[in-house]
Fold this protein.
Amino acid sequence: MKLYKAALIILLFSFSACSDTEKATKDPIKPVKYVIIGNNNDAGTKTFNGLSKSGSETKLSFRSSGLIVLLDAKNGEKVRKGQVLARLDQKDISLSYDKAKASVRSAESQLELSKSNLDRIKELYQSNSASLSDYEQAKNNYSSAQANYENSVKSMNIQSSQFEYAVIKAPMDGIITEVNADVNEVAQAGSPIFIMNSEGDDLEITVGVPESYISKIQEGKSVQVSINNTSVEGLITEVAFSTGGSLTYSVIVKLINPSSDLRPGMPAEVLFALDSEKTSSSQILIPVKGVSNDVNGDFVFVLKKDKQESYQVHKMYVELGELKSGGFVVKSGLNKGDLVAIAGLRTLHDGMSVKLLK
């Protein structure tokens, strides 16, 4: 009885092992990324991502350095032209201005004294009671006092302007979109404290375009912009001549009649028309990544439906034409509606069963 049970256990284990071996040796169906020829390739257009901003963005900063004692504007706050937004501590400025005024008064006194002395020496010289050298010395003293007075006045005016340099006022009506400082911080001259946008409908989209497409984009052309789930017409207003150290060329697109729901900082997609001539409707295009070649020429892998959920791979040689922005023009070998693999081509072979990657 024990021998019978042992034999039965061995037999069941053998069937289980065979079943596992069959499952392990059965190849799983490979998912394949594909395109439908003629239905999803638009050779005349290309979409690039961008970011919205105000066309009249202004950076506001102090013209002198100092301690911030007033910061009277918040992010998102509407401000009016001439409104005081921030102020620096003006104690040192006031002290310097008072010293400058004192120097002006002293220089003015010296000027009056030298003028009085010149008049006196002049009368003595005319009556032969003073020498020519005394008269020339008096004139030189007066000229020196006059120059000193003028320099003192200029210094006082410069110190007076420091009061204006220590205050930031709104240059126009607008909205504060960024605040880069706090009260009791030391601000450096020229360092932006606020970023301000106008209230007008002057939104722009800044787009980075690769070098392979920048020559096909022209200023003044219309584009279509998708932003905040809406479609808006745009106009190309600037096309950068150089990258400026970045990896792409900057293109500025001005939105035409944007809605009030759109704001700076929103991501956008811009659809550019790249080709100057429209692609013929009879032309068939294949993406570059869907083409391979061997000793016999260029070929693609066409996917034809086999069963309900699987497709069979067919290696098809094609004759290619010129390269457009949407891919190669196919002169022969493909038809519109054909399904062509565009990824993992090295792992595919003729007759292989695959499934479509959704």
Summary: The mean pLDDT is 83. The chain has four domains: 30-42+280-356, 45-55+198-273, 60-90+166-197, 91-165.
